[in-house]
Amino acid sequence: VRGGGCSGLEYALDFADAARAGDTVMEFEGLTVYIDMASVQYLKGTEIDYVSGLQGQGFKFNNPNAVRSCGCGHSFSN
Q1: Distance between CA atoms of 46 and 54, rounded to whole angstroms?
Q2: Which residues are 35's β-sheet partners?
Q3: CB of 68 closer than 8 Å to CB of 74
Q4: What is the pLDDT of residues 27-64, one digit of tens each?
């Protein structure tokens, strides 16, 4: 999670070979995920899915902590 977007916060995904100091490390069906310590508070309970359809394709975040999101669905506020 980083600052940006019309609602104040946006999701950011990147590739990494190893955890950094303070990262939370989780594994899902053989996929290791590193979450920086500043983002953990915003992502608790979040489900991520990959969707493909007429509107395009990409990752969809179902975040129960999001209070508001923008119309395009790429940013949120907590």
Answers
A1: 24
A2: 24
A3: no
A4: 999 999 999 999 999 899 999 999 998 878 988 888 89
